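FAQ: What does a ligand-bound record look like?

Like this one, built around adenosine-5'-diphosphate:
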Amino acid sequence: MSLRVLELMLLVALGALVGWAADEAALAFVGALAGAAIWAARDTVRAARVLRWFNKADPSRLPPYGGFWGELLDRARKSIKKLEKKAQNSDARLEDFLAAIQASPNGVVLLDAAGRIEWCNLTAASQLGFDPQRDLGQYVRNMVRHPAFSAYLNAGEFDREITIDGVGPRPSQPTKISLQIHAYGKKRKLMLTRDVTAVQLAENMRRDFVANVSHEIRTPLTVLSGFVETMQSLELSAEERHQYLGLMSQQAHRMQTLVNDLLTLSRLEGSPAPGAGEWMAASELLDHVAQEGRGLTQVIATTPHRIEPVPSPSLWVSGAKSELISAMSNLMSNAVRYTPGGGLIEPGCRLREDGWVEFFVRDAGPGIAAEHLPRLTERFYRVDRSRSRETGGTGLGLAIVKHVAQRHGGRIEVQSEIGRGSTFTIVLPPTRVRETEPA
Ligand code: ADP
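The answer part, i.e. the structure of the complex:
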């Protein structure tokens, strides 16, 4: 029997006993009723305190009851603890989930049915210029002020993505953000964003590259086909034929050089970086390059250049021998082609104090204006277009040199001043240089 019922019976019995003692049977019933009323009042007070406790449900301030109410409170406390633990687990899972979305390289924005920002990760905030705290609850159409985005929202057709300008390092240099909305739940929306600046840049570069290559090939091809037509349609003297064939061969050679340079570039881009296994003496590299320069100047200059290697320390460099030779040959070829005949050209090498090694070709040519220097290694970028063409330049030489230097962990440096000549330098890291011959 429960304590509560026992208490009721005791109070009823006590009341009846007191009534009986006072006036025998007549008051015994009244006494029993009074006992029951006292029990009911006490029970009501307890029930009220229990209900009050439920309002706050603070497990640490449990009313000190035993019996039925104590049991009820104890069970309620246990249920509350269980629910609290569940809620904590859900909170932790939600935190993990949000942390995962925060870590995403893509932007995520949650919009409510009215198009207000409910939540966004930091990536989206930085891409679109939101403040992830302050802008919560703002209408997204007010926050992303781009005509393409407004049209996209108004049309409500979200089966494609759009590209808009995002926040860039400078107002004049916005990023390109690809954005798509996905509907979910009850009219809610998920907006995903992705920074496609690099992709677009690569696409533009690819398009420019194809246009440049086509242009470079079209010119000699047009000249060649012109000569072929002339030779087909006109009776030419032996001397004229000889002259035309010479010009045709020049154009064919130009195309060949271009294709070779393109293949070299694509090989450099597509193959793994050379290891440190192959060592060559710097003097071997410099002698080879000086020799090539002397050969070239005999062919193209009326007064041959003075090619005088500067005294250089005895060093060994590691890397792909053919690539290093090709890079230095390109620098030498440029020096010969752009320096007026008879000018001084000095190849050499030097060990820097920080352990890096420099291979350079210094010339006394026309020099290059400062504004061109940052763009010299771009494919097909030429300062002196006609001189480059006249001397068989492809516009790819310095791009090849830059690639070779970078593949060896180094870089290309250019110092030049109009009227005072240029120095092109390949700088390689200390790991690729030894002062004594490696075993
Ligand atoms: P190109 O085949 O036209 O020489 P490069 O990539 O080798 O192409 O060089 C790019 C441009 O840099 C050249 O067109 C030329 O205008 C300039 N340039 C390169 N080397 C020199 C140099 N030693 N002196 C002056 N201008 C140079």
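Follow-up question: can I read anything off the structure? Yes, for example: The mean pLDDT is 92.
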